[in-house]
Design brief:
Blueprint lengths: L1 H9 L4 E13 L5 E13 L3 E5 L6 H8 L10 E3 L2 E2 L10 E4 L4 E3 L21 H6 L1 H10 L13 H13 L5 E5 L7 H18 L2 E5 L12 E6 L2 E7 L1 H4 L7 H29 L31
Length: about 300
């Protein structure tokens, strides 16, 4: 518990996350650099519940991975709990990252090959943490409707997802990064899970950043919204400014209207670019790319390439 408390003390009193003028590019399979994020700026206060919004490919998952310390950055660009995310391991002792394809605990490593499909009961997975936090374990068992006697090779995909979430939340966190983790949860479990996360923020002062495309039942959940498009932050605003706007009426309608507008703009730009290319004999315009020279190792933090660090 000491590391978690230390992480809470390391940061300033006000902000859990500060991203300043951060850009990130990576080479694709053809060796061409792709601009994933460009001049990203946003801040989140401690205790915030932030929804990370954007179309597919907008850069949401990349932002979460950067905050989790999985990509290199200059020290002043990404501050998490008061410390540069990828430079000091002490900074991530209070950070949990749960992704859609991989599941990461920033501390409490138990090997990179956790047997989520092996013949092992839930009660024996990450046993040291289950024994260290018995009250939290039992609460998560009940919350996610998990039977500790389940054997992992016999459960459904949805049940396996719930076990993964439980393991990712066993140790109390100061910052939780969620990348579309509720996709397999049924309506009741998802509602209870969101209520639990809200209590974690209100009672413990934890901060949560949640990227999702599912907005049912979330009108009362967020405190902040960050809207991304093509790797840029278009909007970083308290949710109250949106919920009080009669033009939208609900979170779902706001997101739909925003993403539809962005899609229509992108289509118009593509059509205009195609027309311009035809006029110029299909000459390819040079693409502005942030230099990749200061992003060695393909921009990954050494030792954090694995999707699953449980």
């Amino acid at each position: 518990m000491g590391n978690n408390d230390d992480a809470q003390k390391e940061g300033g009193e006000e902000y859990a996350v500060e991203v300043t003028n951060f850009s990130f590019a990576y080479p694709n399979s053809y060796g061409k650099e792709v601009q994933a994020l460009e001049d990203v700026n946003f801040k989140l206060k401690r205790g915030a519940r932030c929804l990370l919004l954007g179309q597919n490919g907008a850069g949401k998952s990349t932002v979460l991975r950067v905050l989790a310390g999985k990509h290199l950055h200059k020290k002043e660009e990404v501050i998490v709990l008061g410390t540069a995310a990828c430079y000091q391991t002490g900074a991530v002792s209070g950070v949990s990252y749960l992704g859609a394809s991989g599941w990461t605990r920033s501390i409490a490593f138990a090997g990179n090959n956790v047997a989520f499909e092996a013949d092992i009961p839930v009660k024996e997975m990450m046993l040291h943490l289950q024994e260290k936090y018995p009250e939290r374990r039992d609460e998560l068992y009940k919350l996610l409707d998990i039977n500790p006697e389940w054997r992992m090779h016999m459960v459904s995909d949805g049940q396996r997802r719930r076990v993964r979430i439980m393991l990712g939340l066993l140790r109390p966190f100061n910052l939780l990064l969620l990348d579309e983790v509720t996709v397999d949860l049924d309506v009741v479990v998802r509602a209870d899970f969101l209520a639990y996360l809200k209590r974690e923020c209100e009672e413990r002062g934890a901060t949560i950043i949640y990227a999702t495309h599912i907005f049912d039942g979330m009108d009362e959940w967020p405190t902040d919204l960050v809207l991304l498009d093509k790797g840029r932050v278009l909007r970083n605003t308290p949710y109250g400014a949106i919920s009080s706007d009669q033009k939208y009426g609900s979170l779902y309608k706001f997101v739909e209207a925003s993403l539809r507008e962005l899609r229509d703009q992108a289509r118009a730009e593509q059509n205009a670019a195609a027309s311009e290319a035809d006029k110029k004999g299909n000459e390819e315009k040079p693409q502005k790319i942030v230099p990749f020279a200061d992003r060695p190792n393909c921009g990954y933090t050494p030792g954090r390439l694995a999707e699953m660090d449980l």
